[in-house]
Amino acid sequence: MKNVMKKEYFLKLLFITFLSFGHINSSWADEISLDQAVAYALEYSPVLQGTASGVRARSEQIKSAEAAKLPVIDLDYGLIYSDNPLVSLGSKLNNRSITAEDFSPETVNDPGFSDNYFGNLRLKLPLYTGGRITADIDEANAIHSSSLEQHKRTKSTVVYQVNRAYLLAQAAHEAIKIARSSTRSAKKHVKTTQVLLAENRTVASDNLTAKVYYSSVKGVIPQAEAQYEQALNALKQVMGRDLSADISIVPWKSVSKQAELPDINMSETQALNNRHDLKASDEDISAAEARTRIASSASRLQLGLEASSSLYADDPLVDELSWGVLAVAKINLFSGGANKSRVSAAREETSRLQAEKLAKELEIRKQVRNAYASINEGNSRMKLASANLSDAQKAVTLVDERYGEGRTILIDLLQSEQALIKSRSESLNSRLLLEASKLELQLAMDDFTEAKK
């Protein structure tokens, strides 16, 4: 009874262990390397295309702001057809065709319908705006610079996402190998148990346990293949590639010797200097300071010049021109405190952005330190996992030989297999943790070479 409970407990543990694996479907159509995946994403990612459009839009806003320094010229041309006495008299005055008869009471009161062509050519030029135009241009430049820095940060994020998705797909590829290898071993144990049962060297329950074990291991493979498909779909999504495309990835290579990490304080400094989103925060602050100057300009003297030429005619080919020049000086004396409130609000917005930048700096430093901690954990776990895996493989070989000779029971063999599965799982997971943490550090430091091109 005790052995039966041990077997049931063992099989439950085995099933839970396998559910932690990600696995693969061995379709090798259109194999792409990591470099190819990154290059494709940088060219076709919808996210990057969107941020690039945003940068171009901000560039046009700079031109719009700079245009405010130039004169504005408007031209309009039209026809008035009316029996309104004032319009009729005004048309004759504008055409310089009025006579004494036009002032008789009958003519003034009932002039009849008249038509008149008119045209206006106006030129407006701001001479002084209290610094508003310059501040508008500064704001537009800062917003453009911010969007450009955000675009660069998005490039780093996309490169990171592709690297991470590719890494997870490779891990799934390795995990399916473990599942299939364990399935082959389980099938071998079934055959060995059947031979021992035929020779009356084991009991029927061991034969059934071996079959249940084999079915449990084999049943994980379809789950593994589905998880691999999901990993590939995630990769295609971050690449910006059609999800119906049939792709495969390059298998995981053996682990290379790990390089020493630089001093953590140096990495923090480098991250703070490199991070494009932090540079974007500086530009956002500059834009807010420009908005403060824009708000302040409303209380300053405004000077403008307007020149106009007007055409009036009862014949479109015959015209009478009049010219005029208008110079305007304007200053706001009282706005109910609205101008002052707008300036205060703009200053508070600047303070908010400065505080957010400080918070972002702390967040960046935390990201670097967390990545360091995870890398160190991954290195330590990999060393232990490598030694444990070697011992577990030797143990399975020895117990398997003894079981084939009828010198031990099935549960010992299955327990050694479980230990091997756990060792393989830990080896895979520790390596995945290490590689993923290295990517996290690169993202924290904005240190992807591909994103700088």
Give me a quick take on this structure.
With 453 residues, the chain is an alpha+beta fold.
Structural summary, described in words:
The structure is a single chain. With 453 residues, this protein is of the alpha+beta class. The protein has one domain (2-452): Outer membrane efflux proteins (OEP), CATH 1.20.1600. The chain is 67% helix and 13% strand. The protein has helices spanning 2-19, 34-44, 46-66, 85-95, 105-109, 132-198, 204-239, 264-274, 276-297, 338-404, 410-445; strands at residues 31-32, 72-82, 114-128, 248-249, 302-315, 318-330. It has a four-stranded antiparallel beta sheet, covered by helices on one side. A two-stranded parallel ribbon has the order 1-4. The longest helix is centred in the middle third of the chain and has 67 residues, at 132-198. The chain is elongated and about 140 Å long. Residues 1-7 and 9-28 have low confidence and may be disordered.
* Contiguous helical run count: 11
Whole-angstrom Rg: 40 Å
Helix content: 55-70%
Annotated CATH topology = Outer membrane efflux proteins (OEP)
In round numbers, the mean pLDDT is 85
Q: What's the structural domain tally?
A: 1
CATH architecture: Up-down Bundle
Label this structure with key terms.
single chain; 453 residues; alpha+beta; Outer membrane efflux proteins (OEP); 4-stranded antiparallel beta sheet; two-stranded parallel sheet; 11 helices; 6 strands; 13% strand; elongated
